[in-house]
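Archive entry. Fields below.
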Amino acid sequence: MGDPNPLPTTLAAALHDRFGARFSTNAQVLLQHGRTESHHAVRLPDGVVLAHTTEEVRAVVRLCAEHRVPIVPFGAGTSMEGHTVPVRGGISLDLSEMNRIVAVNADDFDCTVEAGVRRQQLNDHLRDQGLFFPIDPGADATLGGMASTRASGTNAVRYGTMKDAVLSLRVVTPDGRVIRTSRRARKSAAGYDLTRLYVGAEGTLGVITEVTLRLHPIPETVSAAVCGFASLHGAVSTVVQTLQYGVPIARIELLDDVQMMAVNRWSKLDYAEVTTLFFEFHGSERSVQEQVETVAAIAAENGGGEFRWASSQEERSRLWKARHQAYYAALALRPGAVGWPTDVCVPISRLAECIEATKADLARASIPAPIVGHVGDGNFHVVFILDPDRPDERAEAERLNAALVERALSLDGTCTGEHGIGLGKIDCLEHELDEGALDVMRTIKRALDPQGIMNPGKIVRL
Amino acid sequence: MGDPNPLPTTLAAALHDRFGARFSTNAQVLLQHGRTESHHAVRLPDGVVLAHTTEEVRAVVRLCAEHRVPIVPFGAGTSMEGHTVPVRGGISLDLSEMNRIVAVNADDFDCTVEAGVRRQQLNDHLRDQGLFFPIDPGADATLGGMASTRASGTNAVRYGTMKDAVLSLRVVTPDGRVIRTSRRARKSAAGYDLTRLYVGAEGTLGVITEVTLRLHPIPETVSAAVCGFASLHGAVSTVVQTLQYGVPIARIELLDDVQMMAVNRWSKLDYAEVTTLFFEFHGSERSVQEQVETVAAIAAENGGGEFRWASSQEERSRLWKARHQAYYAALALRPGAVGWPTDVCVPISRLAECIEATKADLARASIPAPIVGHVGDGNFHVVFILDPDRPDERAEAERLNAALVERALSLDGTCTGEHGIGLGKIDCLEHELDEGALDVMRTIKRALDPQGIMNPGKIVRL
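PREDICTED_STRUCTURE:
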């Protein structure tokens, strides 16, 4: 678990003076901030600060900078690659109570929220104004965390990722300055794209405290369906052809036979336990009808079965809840197990090949490992379901994961479509990029965080 | 015009040895690379190299780095803010003959092109495969230049800007290394977003030599229309409501009365000389029909006149050619004049206010200044039509431009939606961003180009 080092006395005293009970070294609080929902080893921070304002974040950063103590931003703790684990100790800076919706500009289709606002809270708030925020990674993550990891998820095929959704950020830099990365205009060519620099930087270049987001009108009609396929190849061909026809599909998700079994058990459903696509269509009534006709015809030609429809809000919620709980459903396949979720993303023409080879690998494995994917983007996940007390299983997952990443890279794909690098994929990133590109990343990190205090040990080795 | 300084003799000799006639100090060639299509003063480079490969670009960069001689990447020379003017002399590195389409991956909806490939060349090449590249800034720019300036244009309201279109770049860094910024997957969370760092960096951080782009299927049906409005407010309200209804409109362009007069004269058309919207609809036949019905109803409620349709390819070409030649049409209002094109972008709810106040300003001005805009994004241009021999007119344009930018900034907009900073908007950028954000930009520039040889004098003062 790693030993917490006591913080420098003057730092601890200063934090105590400023934050009172919102600065904590309580064992339970440290544990909450040192563990994650996945397989990464727990490492406790030396203290936790619960910040309420950008000014407070700045104060923490300045104090930590003075003492060269690491700062690890923390939101909902739902990231998958150990982003929030304070591997070099220091302060876990918890932004979850910075959860104010600062402004909604309905006519501009944008809003500004504090970093600790969660996805569902935002959508609940927006509903009455006929707007929604589409990016949906499954977990009810904070918007600050989603920006930091460049999150995407089920709607990305139509609405893009956090890269596309963020208009502007407020960031506290490692030297304790507050900057705003850009204005609220929908597009800008004003200098280097600082917004996209911090989106996906995983808290290694500064602390995001406010996020301005693009919103979308709630579609007039939403309809969802589930369809089983005779073969993986047929399911993936359905995806490719749907995109080729220019169908503006909102979601197109793949679950393999293992995952469908897990979902049926966990969510008490009775879907066929075969490769399955979950679809969602957004648009006017006529447009949705046309999309549905097109996709149903494509699916039928590719060995798809009947479409099972979910047109009411309630049925759709049940369907997507089942999809979103795929991770917990997978874990429940093996009580007491921990999950090692991994993700890769490949050009879509290589997706069937990549999933098929991966399934062949997994068929020979001793651990269960379901597959789910945002296949419209060529992105899929494998979750290795491990007995935490068996090092051989961890070694096997490591080997399978490395093989998966190598396969994705050999197909001109990336080692992570959406989970990020964090702790878990630093080696993978070194395989993915050439030495020059890695050096550019290292140069940026060193230039913008010369003391190396911002979430050290993530993304790149220095 | 600035005096060309002779290059260091050893550098000139080395370039001559390597490039023969493709290294030039001919006065005509220097002039072609020292002037632009807009009002920026001519400054000659000290030499021009016409590169044919990434390896040649690398050789030039290495030689220039050795001699600390500036390098200014040059494509089609169509940028608006003096990006290609070698204000500190050095080598103009012309990539226009690097015009090979390296690969089209039709099933993945992407392609890779050399930086000198032009937009129209690419679309001609793609047509037979049912694909197109949507970003269209009007000018037949190179893709490398479009990436460098973060170009957008008429289709951006639906298809986004170069920020969204670029999947990956090949870049020669200022120390002469060749890097690839990412893989070809549609999305990635693999470390800092180097792709977006170089998109819009205006050649100040390295030389883009290859661009991998997202493509789109050619829509089944395309239809375009022109509609005049009784008031500017009615035209802008039509735009806002169209977006609120979630209509996936492909283009929605505004031309004011002055610009319509110029367009009628230049393109020999007979549109009413009032505030006008140009629309384009993409989709299936049914979808386009529905979009058209919705938008026609919205326009009618907002004082729009009859729609004049252009449904055949030929009519559409004529319509968009008229729109694309708006700049030349504006220049022709005053023979012998030069154009000073400027652009701002504001949140769309502030657009009517911003254009109205600007028109009031222009009504009092002594120089003609038509307005055109990509209003779906809140982005519009003013072109000041100047007599080049009258310093008072230049001073007036300067004052009007400064007032326009201040107005846009006061509405939380940006000093440039798409033209970029270049030479012309360095002061504006300093007004737009806080000192901390500017410092982050300067830090990045210094870290990645410590010798300051890459397109010096652009974007930020060091």
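CURATOR_NOTE: Chain B touches chain A through 93 residues (CB under 8 Å).
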